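Predict structure. Chain length: 385.
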Amino acid sequence: MDGIAGNKAPVVWALNISVVALVLLWLFPTLGLFVSSFRTGDQITASGWWSAMFPAEQTIQLRAADPDENRVETESGVFVVEANIFGEEAFEGELTAWATSSRNLSAFAPGDTADLGDGETLTLNADGTYIWQGNDDQISGRGQRIFIDATTPPDFTLDNYGFVLFDENNSEGMAKAFFNTLTVVIPATIIPILIAAFAAYALAWMDFPGRALLIAAVVGLLVVPLQLALIPLLSFHNSIGIGKGYLGVWLAHTGFGLPLAIYLLRNYMVGLPRDIIENAKVDGATDFQIFTKIILPLSFPALASFAIFQFLWTWNDLLVALVFLIDASGQTTVMTKQIVELLGTRGGDWEILATSAFVSIAVPLIVFFAMQKYLVRGLLAGSVK
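Prediction complete.
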């Protein structure tokens, strides 16, 4: 009665809360990746993406200028180096503390003088200027190491995208990987849809011996782990000469995607009005004409739903690409493998990795939001009568 009176049942509240939780779980990492792609490496290290709009406190390790080139000897025989610890670039943050040892990073305030022993001293001001003085042996060799605690303002940049997309050392690899991924994804999405549509129509509306067994086999294949078939399938591909190439990876994605495609499309086609198909048969239409002129147009939501899933799976795939696109020259490297290589070569450059990852997910996001209205309709097809 509560539901009839207008109050939502507990199951409805639970469903709404679950949907909101799933949306947030998906939204937060994506938003974090997007924000991090515009931040500098120092900012990413200093604070989380959620505080990107606020000043960040960070510790910066710098060195004084080369004493052999910048020192000046006074009349009293003391050698002095005067310079700015930040170099020629203006520092936009606020220096709050500094130290000459990592054991106590807040040992001195701006303007204090640090006694380095045996008459050697160092004075660092709030604007970054410093005076380092000592005898001939002390003011030589490498510059004095200085640790700085500073509050830096928010810093956003497009340099990360400039490096990933346009830098000669990296853009060629990313562009090549982008087109390689499209070469894999487009056929690997279209081929299983074509095959599954014919198979789903046959299993839904055509009577032939063994149809029930085929439906049971399709349902059973849904639970077969992908990893279980990788090595046998690769061995088979190598034996017939299609391994380590695009054809092999297309067929692999087709085989792994067909069970879900057939199951999804059959459930949708079974739910179509029987009268339409029977009237078409009475009028003399063949099964092929019924399939192409009636079933396919009516099944567009289910086709689009599977296309979204298959596109996302193949675009984000790494395992199948590593197994079936083995190429030492890098001519068939896909986006996911390119990002893994960046992770190995630029493991500390989080801003570059975040930018590369967001560039990789931009196309799936566009596809998902462009076709999301068909997703639920296709997934719920056949669930109710």
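Summary: Residues 28 and 50 are 9 Å apart (CA to CA).
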